């Protein structure tokens, strides 16, 4: 018989066995370090005593047990007893006897925040550039366009091909400037309660009528979601861009785009110098397309990053800016055949009634 005890303590990640009654049945040594508590002190005590009753940690354990399966929850903020919150990916696997094996995989919070903040500043630099660019480019462009038109009038057929080329390219630059200008146009979103399913529905219908006719769309909605604190028009733009990218990545035949919504307790975002914000609303867009080219994966939210011949590379920069303005987070993971964009948003809270004076 092998000594599984040694194996168990060799697992470098905190691992817990949670009994059918949600009590801690066992844990490994990494878990003792994680919890700053000995196994002895944890044993037979309810998991909720340590993480709180409404915690996503308890949720994920119960989900796994109920489904008799494995459940993975990404980026859950775990507050263990009095410890500071830590971001973890949680893996819960149901075992045949009803116990659940819970693994905590700490996330590199610093790395995550770093990336999220870089997106923000990249988007901001586009905003600043937008007004200047538009102004500096539009006027000379109009002049060039006028001159090309004049030339075309007296040009031979051969030369007219060239003047047409000039005009086509001018139009392309004009369109690009218009897209960059969008950034400048985005006023700080006025927030109101927004039904995220209405937003998704409108974006989906626009997509189905236009660029996504070849896609099969699968919706997995949690109908009980509370409203998002947001701006509906801007959020529609976000999902249009995500649907468009998905539609452009999937095959003509057999392409699917899955849209999921869910409520995730315990997901919080902490920015330096700001109050941490709870982001429990999760919208996930998954496609079965080509996947994001590996060399772009870290940069796709930056402006002008594109693998497409006719792409401006501004779609995801806009997505990132709008979501950041909403106080939310967008992230993605991708491999050939499965690309997932995950948007986390805050819920709407009615402003506190001011005391009638
Ligand atoms: N769902 C996806 N599947 C595969 N690759 C993707 C997906 N979404 C984004 N990408 C990659 O990220 C790049 C950047 O996307 P982004 O939307 O910012 O620009 P774009 O789609 O190239 O141009 P535009 O949005 O202006 O048409 C894309 O060129 C593509 O390589
Ligand atoms: Mg795009």
Give short descriptive properties of this protein.
Helix Hairpins, alpha+beta, binds adenosine-5'-triphosphate, 43% helix, Beta-Lactamase, 357 residues, binds magnesium ion
Task: Describe the model.
The chain is α+β, with helices and mostly antiparallel strands. It folds into three domains: 4-107, 2-Layer Sandwich (Beta-Lactamase); 110-185, Helix Hairpins, CATH 1.10.287; 192-345, Heat Shock Protein 90, CATH 3.30.565. Helix content is 43%, strand content 22%. It contains ten helices and 14 strands. The strands form four sheets. It has a five-stranded antiparallel sheet with strand order 2-1-5-4-3. A five-stranded mixed sheet has the order 7-9-12-14-13, covered by helices on one side. A hairpin with a 5-residue loop joins strand 4 and strand 5. Helix 6 runs antiparallel to helix 7 (157-185), helix 6 packs across helix 10 and helix 8 packs across helix 9 (232-249). The model has no long low-confidence stretch (mean pLDDT 85). The protein binds adenosine-5'-triphosphate and magnesium ion (MG). Adenosine-5'-triphosphate binds at residues 241, 245-246, 249, 287, 289-293, 296, 300, 305-308, 311-317, 339.
């Amino acid at each position: 018989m092998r000594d599984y005890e040694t194996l168990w303590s060799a697992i470098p990640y905190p691992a817990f066995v949670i009994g059918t009654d949600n009590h801690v049945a066992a844990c490994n040594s990494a878990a003792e370090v994680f919890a700053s508590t000995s196994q002895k002190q944890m044993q037979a005590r309810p998991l909720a005593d340590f993480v709180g009753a409404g915690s996503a940690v308890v949720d994920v354990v119960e989900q796994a047990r109920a489904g008799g399966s494995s459940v993975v929850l990404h980026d859950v903020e775990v507050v263990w007893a009095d410890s500071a919150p830590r971001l973890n990916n949680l893996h819960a696997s149901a075992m045949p006897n009803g116990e659940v094996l819970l693994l905590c995989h700490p996330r590199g919070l610093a790395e995550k925040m770093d990336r999220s903040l870089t997106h923000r500043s990249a988007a901001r630099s586009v905003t600043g550039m937008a007004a200047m660019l538009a102004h500096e480019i539009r006027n000379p462009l109009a002049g060039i366009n006028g001159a090309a038109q004049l030339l075309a009038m007296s040009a031979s057929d051969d030369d007219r091909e060239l003047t047409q080329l000039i005009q086509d390219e001018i139009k392309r630059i004009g369109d690009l400037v218009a897209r960059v200008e969008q950034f400048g146009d985005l006023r700080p979103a006025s927030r109101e309660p927004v039904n995220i399913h209405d937003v998704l529905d409108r974006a989906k219908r626009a997509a189905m009528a236009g660029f996504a006719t070849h896609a099969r769309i699968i919706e997995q909605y949690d109908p009980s979601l509370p409203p998002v604190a947001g701006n509906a028009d801007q959020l529609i733009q976000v999902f249009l861009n995500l649907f468009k990218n998905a539609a452009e990545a999937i095959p003509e035949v057999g392409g699917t785009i899955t849209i999921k919504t869910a409520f995730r307790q315990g997901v919080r975002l902490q920015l330096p110098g700001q109050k941490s914000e709870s982001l429990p609303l999760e919208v996930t867009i998954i496609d079965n397309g080509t996947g994001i080219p590996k060399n772009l994966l870290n940069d796709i939210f930056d402006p002008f990053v594109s693998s497409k011949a006719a792409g401006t590379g501004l779609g995801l920069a806009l997505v990132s800016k709008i979501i950041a303005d909403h106080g939310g987070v967008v992230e993605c993971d991708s491999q050939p055949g499965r690309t997932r964009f995950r948007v986390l948003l805050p819920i709407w809270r009615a402003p506190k009634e001011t005391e009638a004076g």
